Amino acid sequence: MTRITVTVDGQRFVDDVEPRTLLVSYLRENLGKVGTVVGCDTSNCGACTVHLDGRSVKSCNVLAVQADGHEVTTIEGISTAGGLHPMQQAFHECHALQCGYCTPGMIMQAIDILTDNPDPSEEEIRAGLEGNLCRCTGYHNIVKAVAQCAAAGKGGE
Amino acid sequence: MIPAAFEYVAPTTVADALAALAEGGDEAKVLAGGQSLLPILRMRLNAPETVVDLGRIEALRGIREDGDALVIGAMTTYADLLASDLVREHAALVHAAIAEVADPQIRHRGTIGGALVHADPAGDVGAPVLALDGELVITGADGERTVAAADFFEDLFTTAVGDGELLTAVRIPKHTGWGAAYEKFVRVAHQWSIVAVAATVRMDGDTIAEAKIGLTNMGSTPLRAKAVESALAGSAATATAVGAAAASAAEGTTPPSDLNGDADYRRHLATVLTRRAVLAAAGR
Lengths: 157, 284
What we know:
The complex is a heterodimer.
Chain A: E1 2-8, E2 11-17, H1 23-30, E3 49-52, E4 55-58, E5 71-73, H2 86-93, H3 103-116, H4 122-128, H5 139-151
Chain B: E1 7-9, H1 14-24, E2 28-31, H2 37-42, E3 50-53, E4 63-66, E5 69-73, H3 78-82, H4 85-90, H5 92-98, H6 104-109, H7 112-118, H8 126-131, E6 135-140, E7 143-148, H9 149-152, E8 153-155, E9 158-159, E10 166-173, E11 179-185, E12 195-204, E13 207-216, E14 223-224, H10 226-232, E15 235-236, H11 239-246, H12 263-281
Parallel strand pairs in B: 1-3, 2-3
Antiparallel strand pairs in B: 4-5, 5-10, 6-7, 6-10, 8-9, 11-12, 12-13, 13-14, 13-15
């Protein structure tokens, strides 16, 4: 076992983990943060996307021990004062989901896109979501939601 | 899917990493960004006894100028390379190719050194480094040695990095002012290159003074399209002239056949993508 200290959604955790534990398993099974889901488990689909030190990563493709000393933000940590994050609100308003399974990863990646580029074109939004798969083929409304959030100027919050 | 159990070592210096590798012997595996290694471990295609994580070695990160070259630390991420003005200015081909690697999440974690040592022939980093006459700095117990990219890639997933050694830096001769383009052919988003072509050119007015071209997935290693480079030297940058030169892009290649395309199809793709890449690099 290896001891790690990780800040997740603003809270500090100290845990002993097996080195082979994936970050997504640590988040879900040790911390109960099941808002982050496992989709493909092969690093393709992006459903497990979280932020590591503020940048998007696929948490099935990072070991928990690699996050030692770092800061993780999950879908459960983005809302403020009990309200929805502006990106969550935009997904809600644009009906940017059908089954909802890809949504946590989509939202975390969408926020990352606006961190780099607060005013992306449609093409830039689509390229930015390249690593996130939606099998309900709901991309059109997802892209609309990201654009709406960007237009409101609230993406990176 | 969960990897088989392993011992985890996270040294903070290259010397400590080399010591951990020596101790682990054949059963040790180096973890760079992990974007190829972790899927391999999860699918249990490999089950090392020890994983040596280079992620805590700050000295292996960063991009600096050294005379006529850029020196890129092996643990520099794709995202750091894409954000670098030095890379954009002096090695535009590296910027162009890396922009096409996988997806943003993977570019935040994946490293240039990890990709080069993994040496997947469909990876997007080898061809531009080869085309730019890059040099690879390899560090072992006896110190550093430098290997030309042309000698670095030995076979599928096999490089000049020996047991107990680490790739520590990539030296790219400055190609300041050269135009560059990476034409990657895939059928779906986030796919490995079926074929890709990395082209960079030095223009003299409307003429291509010099061209360097690397091919991705046209053999077991990245390859140079030397015949095209010779034909383009001093050529007009017109679609006709470039198209004629690009016709020999597949000369000397041994592309694979798989579900995405057979070898003949890849040879054809190489000529088309070379024409497009050279014209784009020439600003046409």
